[in-house]
Amino acid sequence: MRRLRVFDTTLRDGEQSLGITLNVEEKLEIARQLVLLGIDIIEAGFPASSPGDFESVATIARQMKGVAICGLTRAVEQDIDLCAQALRAAEHPRIHTGIGVSPVHMAKKLMLTPEQVVERTAAAVKYAKKFVDDVEFYAEDGFRADPNFLVHVLEAAIQAGATVVNIPDTVGYANPWEYGKLISFVKENVKDIDQVTISVHCHNDLGMATANSLAGIIAGAGQVEGTINGIGERAGNTSLEEVIMAIYTRRDEYGIQSGIRPKEIAATSRLVSRITGVPVPDHKAIVGANAFMHASGIHQDGVLKDRETYEIIRPETIGVPENTISLSARSGRHALQHRLQELGYDVAGEELDSVYHSFLELADRKKEVFDQDLYALMGDAGAGPQGILLQHMSIATSGVDTATATVTLDLAGEVQTDAAVANGPVNALFSAIDRIVGVPAVLEDYTLKSVTRGSEALGDATVKLRYPDGSLVVGKGISTDILEASAKAYLNALSKRGRGGEVGK
Ligand SMILES: CC(=O)SCCNC(=O)CCNC(=O)[C@H](O)C(C)(C)COP(=O)(O)OP(=O)(O)OC[C@H]1O[C@@H](n2cnc3c(N)ncnc32)[C@H](O)[C@@H]1OP(=O)(O)O
Ligand SMILES: CC(C)C(=O)C(=O)O
Ligand SMILES: [Mg+2]
């Protein structure tokens, strides 16, 4: 199998994302994780850019072993001097130098003729070779260059000693078939190209960085450059995790392998997101929070029967825990029953129907139903108010210490409504229920706690009623509405009276 080198530029091109500046410690933490991931070359920064970036590159070069450490420069001697200095302690140092080669870059930005650019190319590579053996040359904006001129520049770089030639699509302008064709053209026309490694470096301005990189790899590139989570200037760089997993998932067809340990992908993505402060979109390929989640009933049923129905990558492969079924109002009985079984509840038949009914009521009010919700639901489902149903309730508060509650109850088919005023919404609610039911008990205790995650968390209310004969009845109620949870708990306690629900005197 052909071996692909993976070149990570999260710390250099990734750091060029708007609003990101990483300090030495932050860069070092990411670099350590990149080594665990199995990256071959870490581009640690642009040493001439600032004293801080120089220090970052120097520190990473000193501390990271078993990986090549690279620094970027312009085709400028002073940049190369600083880069060489920063890389001095590296086990495998690489200088990445280069210059713009497209007509617009040469004429408008550099204000150099094509022949001057060729001269600067050769001079920069030669100069860098004085310090290190491993010199990568980048032909900036290479995709928009005249292909024949590109051949000329690359030959100058190779002759001067470059070990790697990088052909960037700097502005993300390429289509995959064009980029692949350019790499093939370079392979076929550049003298001594077989003596060096071709590198692909794509940007995502048209959302094609991954596709373009893969096209370049198929055409013969031996190195891919990119960043974790695809961060980078403008619309970002190639997402390395996407390229790696495309090649890994279809390895028989690609016939290419890398030294990456896929199990470290999720952890690396989380770390980069945390340190850079750039969130990963939920739907992002490979590393998005939803990338392995199955939300709809038909998909969940399929996955439970055979994961391959809707899964091309096992989440464990990239280090994501296996529970990929997200319960919501779009889930069916199979998914609910499966999760309940995993949580230790054996429910089937009519009981499952009844729990599913309560589950849907809850799910319609919550985006996602978590395990804690299910625990609460199972407790509630078995102990729901029997004989007394809460049909409707409304609370109005005015000022800090006055509340009016209106309650409608269904007492075994007889519907009654009443209202009460009290010094708070819960007291008003319980008083209104008392007025309908005629409760002889005294409220001894009332507690409310949140049992699940998120802003729509379930409220779990507990009510203790003391009856004149001294017996104590405990009622529980859950709801996303804490007042409804309170009313349900109160009614639950009332409904237990006389049915063996007393817990003591
Ligand atoms: C596609 C890429 O990602 S390229 C890498 C981008 N990264 C960065 O720019 C890193 C952060 N940059 C910096 O810290 C600064 O811009 C520095 C230190 C590199 C240069 O700062 P300054 O010397 O003040 O120059 P400034 O950035 O204003 O202009 C760039 C100069 O470099 C020239 N230049 C740009 N690229 C190259 C190159 N590859 N080789 C030689 N010269 C170059 C420009 O033509 C311009 O030259 P001029 O001053 O003669 O007009
Ligand atoms: C400096 C080079 C490698 C680059 O980042 C680009 O052209 O996008
Ligand atoms: Mg770039």
From TrEMBL:
Stated name of the protein: 2-isopropylmalate synthase
Key words of the record: Acyltransferase, Amino-acid biosynthesis, Branched-chain amino acid biosynthesis, Cytoplasm, Leucine biosynthesis, Manganese, Metal-binding, Transferase
Organism classification: Bacteria, Bacillati, Bacillota, Clostridia, Eubacteriales
A GO term from the CC aspect: cytoplasm
UniProt record, GO biological process: L-leucine biosynthetic process
Cofactor entry: Mn(2+)
Top-level taxon in the UniProt lineage: Bacteria
Catalysed reaction equations from the record: 3-methyl-2-oxobutanoate + acetyl-CoA + H2O = (2S)-2-isopropylmalate + CoA + H(+)
Top-level class of the enzyme under EC nomenclature: transferase
Entry keyword tRNA-binding: no
Residue ranges of the region described as Regulatory domain: 389-505
